[in-house]
Amino acid sequence: MNTLINGLCLGGIYALIALGYTMVYGIAKMLNFAHGDIIMVGAYAIFSTMALMGHAVPAIVVAVVVCTLLGLLTERVAYRPLRGASPLAVLITAIGVSYLLQSIAQLIYGSKSRAVSLGNFGSVELFNVSISISSLITLGLCLIIMVALTLFIKKTKVGCAMLAVSEDRAAAQLMGINVNGIITLTFAIGSALAAFASTFYLMQIPSVTPTLGSMPGIKAFTAAVIGGIGSIPGAMIGGILLGVIEKLALSIPALAPYTTAIEFGLLIIILLVKPTGLLGKKRREKV
């Protein structure tokens, strides 16, 4: 039971990160590999604010603001000039932004791990199993955020505009939709989700380093591909699936050393069976 709850919590964190990847790809058709490092920036924002104020809530608010502004700045400076460039140029730029953020963090904070405590939440007994309250908070808030995002995309005019840009950017522009504004908003939402993901990550692993976002970012991208890159429900399912599998594998001593290999092996198997991912759709190019 405890393993399952922890797996769902970790899966929720992966899903939040994967949503940033899949939204940017679905709407802007680019892979923002610097997304994982925005999580790291959010974690350091929480660390710095906690050191100054000592309260978790202002630290989380500051992290959301910092990550959102960073996402907007990254889109405006690094990605918008490459809007019509080749995917390879965008990919190289994203990797460059990733290493730039890591290097800046290392220059400011050093390479050593810094402890970050968001508070001691204790634990509760459920079905004769002790479960940490932080895990329940993480799971509950992740579900609320994912449901709220889904309703925003499906039920609001801005969400419908996002779907229109995702389907056909040129047609959406002809219909009067501000494509640049929609792409900018997408980066802002994805970066805000990264800030929440950094908060939940610190609740599970209370320390931060300049490379904190690297592996969670890669695994979240894997989750997005498993679910179907560009599909919001797919990112959620892929994240939850990957988190549960990781915790289950870690709970079995014989499989624990091969956990990462199992996760990426699952990616290979799913892509061999269904190249577009679990919920991905094959797009036909019209000529």
Tell me about this structure.
The protein is mainly alpha-helical and 287 residues long. It has a domain at 8-111 and 118-213. The chain is built from 11 helices and 4 strands; from the N terminus they run H-H-H-H-E-E-E-H-H-H-H-E-H-H-H. The chain has helices at 2-28, 35-53, 56-79, 87-109, 133-155, 157-167, 169-174, 179-204, 214-227, 232-250, 259-273; strands at 114-115, 123-126, 129-132, 207-208. A two-stranded antiparallel ribbon has the order 1-4. Strands 2-3 form a two-stranded antiparallel sheet. A hairpin with a 2-residue loop joins strand 2 and strand 3 (129-132). It is globular, with a radius of gyration of 19 Å. The N and C termini lie far apart (53 Å). The relative contact order is 0.20. The model has no long low-confidence stretch (mean pLDDT 85).
For the structure shown, list the relevant keywords.
two-stranded antiparallel ribbon, 72% helix, globular, 11 helices, 287 residues, mainly alpha
Helical content band: over 70%
Number of separate strands: 4
Can you tell me the residue ranges where pLDDT is under 50 for at least 5 consecutive residues?
none
**Morphology call:** globular
Instruction: Give the percentage of residues in beta strands.
Output: under 5%
* Major β-sheet strand ordering: 1-4
Q: Please give the alpha-carbon distance between the first and last residues.
A: 53 Å
Mean pLDDT across all amino acids: 85
Number of helices, where a helix is a run of at least 4 consecutive DSSP H or I residues: 11
N-to-C series of helices and strands: HHHHEEEHHHHEHHH
The major sheet is characterized as: 2 strands, antiparallel
Q: Given the helix and strand composition, which structural class is it?
A: mainly alpha
Task: Specify Rg, calculated over alpha carbons.
Answer: 19 Å
